[in-house]
Amino acid sequence: MTDQPAGYYHAEGDPSGTVRYWDGSQWTTGPTSLPPGDPYAAPVSQDRYGGVGARILATIIDGLISLAVVIVLLVITGSDSDELVLLASLASVVTAVAYLAMVANMGGTPGKLAMGLRITKDDSVTTPPGWGPAILRAIPNLASAIPAIGGLIALVLGIMNIVFVSSDPQRRSVNDRVGVTRVVKKDHLS
């Protein structure tokens, strides 16, 4: 942590849920819990977490990449309308698995990486999160595959994510809560 402004941050290796004070050049306290509502405790800076705008742009980039994969497969195979649904489903599965591998091993989808965001473990300093958290954080997205109501579930999930990221001190989405992860700006990683 060399370029971090002074403030309370989680230090790598410390117990989960604890912070230390960084004076801008070194740690000055040991690990401690900051009780909620403590007027003397400086909050962990929200500037380190990825906000709503960057995450929405990352989702748009990921969606465009997924669409491009479908279009390329259609052009290569010369599929007719009967095969379109099957091919689109196959492309979606392949893209989802590739994105899952990227989150587990690189700390983000192409959109998040392009936006300078990284998915980290719950300590918000290590990346990538690994397969367990990556799989867990993908579970809410599987609900969009439910026939007839998947689109509605995806819409509700998207709205919930915007509300949570806007209101949570660590800007955790539904996926972050399920996967016990955080989305951190790359330049704020230790």
What is the 3D shape? elongated
CA-atom Rg in angstroms: 19 Å
Oligomer: single chain
List low-pLDDT spans. 35-44
Q: Count the helices. How many?
A: 6
What value does the average pLDDT take?
A: 81
Structure overview:
The chain is mainly alpha-helical. The protein folds into two domains: 1-34, no CATH class; 49-188, no CATH class. It is 49% helix and 8% strand. The protein is built from six helices and four strands. It has helices spanning 52-77, 81-106, 110-114, 131-142, 150-167, 174-179; strands spanning 7-9, 20-22, 117-121, 181-185. The strands form two sheets. Strands 1-2 form a two-stranded antiparallel sheet. A two-stranded antiparallel sheet has the order 3-4. The chain is elongated. 23% of the residues are buried.
Helices and strands in order, then pairings?
Layout: E1 7-9, E2 20-22, H1 52-77, H2 81-106, H3 110-114, E3 117-121, H4 131-142, H5 150-167, H6 174-179, E4 181-185
Antiparallel strand pairs: 1-2, 3-4
